[in-house]
Write a structure and sequence with these properties.
Blueprint (H helix, E strand, L loop, with lengths): L14 H10 L5 E2 L11 H12 L12 H15 L9 E4 L1 H13 L5 E6 L5 H7 L3 E6 L9 H11 L3 E7 L11 H11 L5 E5 L22 E6 L12 E4 L2 H15 L4 H10 L6 H22 L3 E3 L6 E5 L8 H12 L1 E2 L1 E2 L10 E5 L4 H21 L1
Parallel strand pairs: 1-11, 3-4, 3-5, 5-6, 6-7
Antiparallel strand pairs: 2-8, 7-8, 9-10, 10-13, 12-13
Helix pairs in contact: 2-9, 3-9, 4-5, 4-8, 10-12
Amino acid sequence: MSRFNKRLGSIKPSPIRAFDEEVGQLENIIKLTLGEPDFDTPEKVKQAGIQAIKDNFSHYSQNPGLLELREAIAGFMKEKYHVVYDPVNEITVSVGATEAYASSLLAILNPGDVVLIPSPAFPGYQPVISMAGAEIVHMDTSATDFILKKEQLEENLEKYGDRVKVVLLNYPTNPTGVTYDREAVKEIADVIKQHDIFVLSDEIYSELVYEEEHVSIAEYLPEQTILIHGVSKSHAMTGWRIGFSLAPAEITQEIRKVHQFIVTAASTISQKAAATALTESKDEGLVMRQAYKERRDFMISSLNELGFECAKPSGAFYIFAKIPSDFGLTSMEFCRELAYNNRVAVIPGHAFGPGGEGYVRISYAASMENLQEAVKRISDYVENKKQQG
């Protein structure tokens, strides 16, 4: 083992994927585990991909991506979120949003740097930060309704001083579904702009905001922000693997170095499909959003009746539900019991870092029929726990 990269020794497989694989083989299991839209890719987008194959778009694109797609990204982001980027020098097409944030973090982090992140948080960020030799500091937001407050951010910026390189935001948030309104975004931006640091903002779920308009922090901090986005969630294109990073030219130049040498370029066929998604099918996410909202409301109401406290998600397609304290179970114990005994799979909250233990993440990116059946099974589980007393 000493012959391998020593930094990999502290990195374990994704706890989300690990648990999903553990229980996914159970017979008749209803999986509410992964952030996988259950919708199909829009027909017009599929046809664009098919046409690209017929037209022999099977060769490399430019390293930063097809200019046609980068122009579509620029137009989409300007229209939807009022942020302006030059498609030639400030946008890079990546292999999913995962590669976008990985290339970005590897471009800016040095050993010993500190990355501040509100927690509970998606666990995919930490391994990349560790690979760069940097340190992640979780800011537990469970006491403030899963919203990072400026006082907590200021406290950590003061504590870690010049070691802080990045504040990493993700909103609407995986795993809680909570998002930040304009006032909250501006409050955080006002703190960050006083420091010579980056903000990496993963806004992949921004098309799935229910009650309010999504506000990008790049609107307030364009010079310091690396904005991460993609078509996976908005257009049900997870398998097409198209994401993108948007940042000032001098930052993008460094991101592109990493991107070029680890992937060369994203799939040209997928890029052609994504260009159609962001132009001719730019509002497809709104159709899906309405269905997700109905599912959210059903799940929140049902879980509350069963005794689960839930932070009402204002975006994405997750519910972060607190396990009733009288169950006396850790999040992993609860999830295993529910999966093995009642055939419903959800993700244990401890997978998302500090503030996550005692909760479970439930993905409602599933059919209403499956959600209704899952609620029945959870109800049976709860009734059985009560009888056990």
